[in-house]
Amino acid sequence: MRLSDLIVAERIVVPLQADDLPGAARELLARLVASGAVSQPERLRERVEEERPEDLVGMGNKAFLLHYRSDAVRELVVALGTAPSPIERELGESEETQSARIILLVAAPPRQASLYLATVGAFARLLSKPQVVDAVLAQPTADGLAALPMFAEIEVRDQLAVRDLMTSRPRSVSPDTPLRDAALDMVRAGVAGLPVVDADGRVIGMLGQRELLQHMLSSYLQRGGPTPPGPDARVRTVRDVMTRQVLCVSPEQPLAEVASMMTNKDVDRVPVVREGRLVGFLTRGDIVRKLIGS
Asked: Which SUPFAM superfamilies does the record match to this protein (predicted)?
């Protein structure tokens, strides 16, 4: 499937008449309903009216991307509109505002979670490009907007895999690395965890902030306070504190399946392995950041 399969003229509003974001959402929803794309209009209307913060991706001054998962639609549907002047949105309790002229609404049933995530991510990445925004805003008609070639160039796979979002060639640490050195490496790199690999590149453990905190607290209590260890104290290594029970995943596993596993097991990061050897790393933050193109 390509984005051009989702951007059809009958679901495009040019120009939007609303002067605020909730009004634009209602206008786009009305267009979806009129096109017959919504099986339960009132249910989706109620969902849109909730205005949950997590349903909105604001892309600077380029676009607002509204996205909903709801059984009110049978299949993933998209509505797109452009406003003649910027539509503003307040940012929380601050006095700052965000404005954009492009409003995109994506709705999908829960069973299409992977396609939904892939579609939201594809649109977010595409609309982050100034030249794309200019081309969209330059179209005075729905037919002209739907015919833009850039939408046909973007393929949306209905099954994202771990390999599509993982960090390749990730940082790792040896089990024999002094613990202090490993901790400093994590701080300097700004990472919250490191896979521990042996000489053959096989994952044998994980070193995270939790393990470091447990070690520091244990040492603090044993010494009776923040006093340095004696000269004969053994230098502790990563092997001494790493966790050996590691959830590893394959590059080919469906992303939705892995995201569910991470949530159910309360795991923030997982090594990606092929035949036991480290080939990548995936975190919850990666999933969020990369899907919305930041």
From this structure: CBS-domain pair, Phoshotransferase/anion transport protein
What's 165's DSSP letter? T
Which residue has 């797109």 as its token pair? 80
Q: Positive or negative CA dihedral for 129, 133, 134, 139?
A: positive
Domains defined for the chain, CATH in brackets: 3-159 (3.40.930.10), 164-228+235-291 (3.10.580.10)
Put simply, whether the predicted model's pTM sits higher than 0.85 gets the answer no
Q: Confidence class of residue 214 from pLDDT cuts 50, 70 and 90?
A: confident
* Arithmetic mean of pLDDT over the chain: 88
Q: What is the DSSP string of 133-163?
A: HHHHHT--SHHHHHT-HHHHT-B--SS-BGG
Which tokens is 182 given? 């490993």
Q: What is the DSSP string of 216-280?
A: HHHHHHHHTSSPPPPTTPPPPBHHHH-BS----B-TTSBHHHHHHHHHHTT-SEEEEEETTEEEE
The alpha carbon torsion through 134, 138, 141, 142 (nearest 10 deg) reads: -10
pLDDT of residue 223: 54
